[in-house]
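Anyone up for a design puzzle?
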């Protein structure tokens, strides 16, 4: 885990706006970053239970702190990739943080976010004490050190992995201790930026690698100069300091090591003595060839360097050509001018020659400067950008993650590189993969706790995406999967294919499995996942329509409702890996072992009956889509008939647009559903209206089950949450009636009855 304190930026926005933006981001991160989702959120020490109310309370209290520019602090606790905290663990983290910081009674908003990389917890805490109305400064501003202590306690209490460079750790006796970190000599950030951009060792790194040991072990100035010269370096005194030259680039010796300042070196080696170096002071000093900073993409880096050297040589040739052309023009100008002025005598000729020489010298200098600046502005291209420009996208991605690759490269390789061919797990997988015939397989590892908690991570996840392993890659990672099993992990496979559904039926009994087969369904794989419990996979070709994903989900839902797990409804779902153990705590045997997941049946085949079921479902989706399209084409947004639900929907939509900036159409649909209920619509009418109208106001209508969406929206409007919101907005009910023209219709009806 890591912890960060987000510094307050110099923002021109008012304090209230900054706090509002922060609280909104914690609760609704997808509004700013669509890739970032909210897993869990909460608040402490507020009177209100709603987001809007809690935000208003925090802003109101913060405004009382006249002397504090920003009393609300923003902290982030981040878990490593693959770690997934439970809700109770999040609450425990917040409890420990507030308690240790002395902010238990303070207003706090927190949210657990997840994106493509990892889970992270945002905490916004108001340092303004609600009782004393004084701004608290935890630990007199030294709260970052305390935060690292809290982090160590959280890791120890909840069992999370600690970072390599963590500042604190908890000893076996439970005591908190400061870790001693041996920091190696590293280049400064500008030098690291240069290395990242060019793939070339910076002068600072070369000075550290070649010169550190020499300067540290030197017994005299003569020895220091001699050995540095052999290493291609040069040591010079400059003012009261010392400089180490790598070619013509100067590096402060204190940046190589703090012990190498001139004063400290003189104390150790005596008064400074000059050294002699080959080619010292000459323009023809031989430059050291560039050195690669990493062994990743070494061949491509050499091509990159050669191409740049060729470009430099070409530019140098072009510069020389431009200079030669200018000198020829100058010579012609001198000959012409001197021939014209020769008749005026030698004094005039000398003056004119001198003035022309000065002018031409200035032109030549300007040309050299112009050409030099042009080359400097162009510079060496970025290595990663160069790789992308050559279509080497895989190599560019490797270069971006070179640090991790280098660690793996230099770490001792395990003795067992591949799984033995007679391994039970590997043999079972080959049988299974032959029958399923998927393009790739996602590998999920889940550790199950005694209290029912779970820790999940995806083994094939890279760069935030899971594309699965090919069968060959499964063989490569089988050793790691077995190691994870020994550690207590449950291993799952999820078959992935672009043109096939792999329908899982879970939690089957022997009787339901028999009935499935008697009903004409032909599974490709049957698993004995635990004693008396079975899983099976059916392979079904996709139909090639826009509803393929929804069709797969409905097939899964239908078959599981009939034969298996009534809660399972997704067509892409993990199942237990054959050959591995079912390590649920309840299945643990007296001898400490666990039951094995057995592959009872495996045959590469497609299920015709399931495919026919898919065609029926697809036809229903197509008919519903055609109906909605017809409705959207024939509908006129103007209110032609007061009381018509569809017209009422668009009327309320226009009213909302006039008063609000629409960012979330789901929220708009919920508001309209509540208004329709207030105006006397039934739940069924509201659901049907949302189903038919909601898709027409979106840019895309795909990827959503609109029927379910409409039912959920109507469920809100007619549920307890809708009751509360309806009561809270009672003052607008007459306005909502007027938008639909209900009062006018009632007056017209009354007039008809009187006649």
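Challenge accepted. My sequence:
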């Amino acid at each position: 885990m890591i912890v960060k304190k987000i510094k307050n930026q110099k923002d021109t926005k008012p304090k209230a706006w900054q706090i509002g933006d922060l609280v909104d981001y914690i609760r609704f991160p997808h509004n700013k970053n669509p890739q970032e989702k909210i897993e869990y959120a909460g608040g402490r020490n507020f009177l209100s239970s709603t987001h809007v109310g809690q935000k208003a309370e925090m802003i109101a209290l913060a405004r009382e702190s006249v002397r504090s520019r920003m009393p609300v602090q923003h902290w982030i606790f981040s878990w490593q990739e693959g770690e997934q905290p439970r809700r109770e663990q999040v609450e425990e983290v917040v409890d420990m943080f507030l308690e240790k910081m002395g902010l238990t009674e303070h207003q706090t908003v927190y949210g657990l976010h997840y994106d493509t990389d990892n889970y992270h917890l945002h905490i916004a805490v108001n340092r303004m004490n609600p009782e004393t109305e004084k701004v608290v400064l935890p630990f007199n501003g030294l709260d970052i050190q305390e935060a690292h202590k809290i982090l160590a306690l959280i890791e120890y209490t909840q069992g999370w992995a600690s970072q390599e460079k963590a500042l604190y750790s908890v000893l076996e006796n439970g005591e908190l201790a400061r870790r001693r970190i041996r920091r190696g000599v590293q280049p400064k950030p500008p030098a690291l930026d240069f290395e990242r951009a060019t793939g070339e060792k910076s002068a600072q790194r070369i000075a550290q690698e070649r010169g550190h040991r020499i300067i540290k072990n030197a017994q005299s100035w003569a020895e220091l100069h001699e050995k540095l010269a052999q290493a291609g370096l040069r040591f010079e005194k400059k003012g009261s300091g010392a400089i180490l030259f790598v070619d013509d680039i100067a590096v402060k010796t204190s940046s190589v090591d703090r012990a190498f300042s001139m004063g400290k070196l003189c104390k150790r080696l005596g008064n400074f003595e000059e050294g002699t170096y080959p080619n010292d002071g000459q323009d023809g000093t031989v430059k050291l060839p560039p050195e690669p900073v990493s062994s990743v993409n070494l061949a491509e880096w050499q091509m990159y360097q050669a191409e740049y050297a060729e470009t430099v040589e070409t530019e140098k040739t072009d510069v020389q050509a431009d200079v030669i052309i200018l000198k020829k023009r100058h010579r012609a100008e001198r000959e012409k001018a001197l021939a014209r002025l020769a008749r005026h005598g030698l004094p005039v000729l000398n003056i004119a020659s001198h003035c022309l020489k000065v002018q031409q010298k200035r032109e030549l200098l300007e040309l050299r400067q112009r050409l030099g600046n042009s080359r400097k502005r162009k510079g060496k291209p970025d290595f990663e950008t160069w790789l992308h420009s050559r279509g080497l996208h895989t190599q560019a991605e490797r270069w971006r993650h070179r640090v991790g690759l280098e660690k793996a490269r230099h770490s001792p390789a395990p003795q067992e590189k591949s799984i033995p061919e007679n391994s039970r797990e590997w043999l079972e997988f080959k049988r299974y993969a032959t029958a399923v015939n998927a393009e790739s397989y996602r590998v999920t590892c889940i550790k199950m706790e005694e209290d029912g908690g779970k820790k999940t991570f995806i083994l094939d996840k890279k760069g935030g995406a899971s594309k699965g392993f090919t069968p060959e890659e499964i063989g490569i990672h089988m050793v790691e999967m077995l190691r994870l099993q020994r550690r207590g992990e449950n291993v799952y496979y999820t078959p992935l294919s672009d043109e096939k559904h792999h329908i899982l039926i879970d939690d089957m009994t022997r009787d339901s499995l028999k009935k499935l087969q008697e009903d004409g369904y032909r599974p490709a794989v049957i698993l004995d996942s635990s004693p008396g419990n079975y899983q099976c996979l059916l392979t079904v070709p996709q139909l090639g329509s826009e509803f393929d994903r929804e069709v797969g989900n409905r097939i899964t839902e239908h078959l599981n409702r009939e034969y298996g797990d009534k809660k399972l409804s997704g067509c892409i779902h993990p199942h237990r890996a054959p050959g591995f153990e079912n390590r649920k705590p309840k299945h643990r045997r007296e001898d400490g072992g666990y039951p094995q997941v057995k592959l009872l049946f495996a045959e590469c085949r497609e299920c015709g009956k399931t495919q026919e079921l898919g065609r029926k479902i697809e036809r229903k989706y197509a008919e519903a889509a055609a109906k909605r399209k017809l409705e959207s084409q024939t509908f006129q947004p103007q209110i032609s008939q007061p009381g018509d639900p569809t017209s009422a929907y668009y009327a309320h939509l226009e009213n909302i647009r006039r008063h609000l900036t629409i960012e979330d159409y789901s929220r708009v649909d919920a508001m309209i559903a509540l208004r329709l209920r207030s105006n006397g619509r039934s739940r069924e009418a509201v659901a049907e209206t949302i189903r038919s109208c909601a898709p027409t106001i979106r840019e895309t209508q795909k990827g959503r089950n609109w029927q379910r969406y409409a039912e959920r929206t109507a469920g809100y409007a007619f549920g307890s949450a809708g009751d509360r919101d309806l009561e809270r907005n009672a003052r607008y009910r007459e306005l909502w009636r007027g938008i639909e023209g209900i009062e006018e219709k009632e007056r017209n009806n009354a007039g008809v009855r009187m006649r």
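A detail worth pointing out: The chain has five domains: 2-178, 189-269, 298-387, 424-613, 635-754.
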